[in-house]
Automatic annotation (TrEMBL):
It comes from the Eukaryota. One of its GO terms (biological process) is mRNA splicing, via spliceosome. This is Anaphase-promoting complex subunit 4-like WD40 domain-containing protein. It is found in: Cytoplasm. It comes from Cladophialophora chaetospira. It holds the Pfam family WD40. GO terms for cellular component: catalytic step 2 spliceosome; cytoplasm. Keywords: Cytoplasm, Repeat, WD repeat.
Amino acid sequence: MPASTLPTSLLHTLTTHTGAINALTFSSLGGTYILTGSSDRQIHLSRTEPSSATETITPIQRYASHGYPILDIACSRDNQTFASVGGDRSVFLWDVANNEGTVRRFGSTSGGHMSRITCVAFAGEGDSVIVSGSDDMSIRLWDVKSRDTRPIMVLEEAKDGVSSLVVSGCEIIAGSVDGRVRSYDIRTGKVTVDVMPGSVTSLDFSRDGRTLLIGCLDGRIRMLDRTDGTCLRAFPEEGETGYKNESLRLKSCFGQNEALVLSGSEGDGDVRAWDVLSGKNIGSAKVGSKVVSVVKWREGSQAQGRRSLWAGGGADGVVKIFGES
């Protein structure tokens, strides 16, 4: 595939949900499967690329213990478990092979979040820790190996809701509605703060952990050099029309070995892509007729015969997967 090209061939459509799509993630170790979370309070497991059908109306598994909309999902590196969060104010830990109920719930007793949980990630050796961020302005860390369901650490520096987080080694990086990105070094206790011009809606980071992708409610997505806090580039360019992010939490991401930035928009049902080096818009694809709130990229692998593709979903409740033709 030529450099800086957005794959726009529709490979697969998921119509398994009855509510808006708020979260999606590919499975680890190749991304053969995709987990989708919805306002219909269910998480669905489907194949990313089915062998024949181009539309899936019934998932492989349904996970339905949530009582409120699901807002984020994280998959463990061994693909055996995943964590989900939402309006329940608890972190749900699931066994992928068992849809009868959760393995663990963190925060359902003392020490839990006081408001909806917006983001979740695995951390630590062997994914032994779960990190969650909430509208209650806190980040909590939970020990997966312990029987104690109370948090092992609480981080409360945010002055407004925590909207997004990523984990890079021993660092937890969190974006907040207060317009700050805070990086916590768990080993040293040091906190580094970067100030953004608007509420932070999403975070993604490069594989080497040196570049951070930050979406904000000022309608821009910025690439930040984590070594010195320099803004390397902002998308879209000044004067470019179409992209809109003024009030909703949109999740953008890197793609094509970090040569692209992808994001949905409030203004239409399109996902747009920008070239990282030039900053130019290099194309778009229609995902729905309404807001596209979440987009994820899966890298290809020539050795495994796996093509690069990406998935997007939003208010329509439909997930579309695009790739190379």
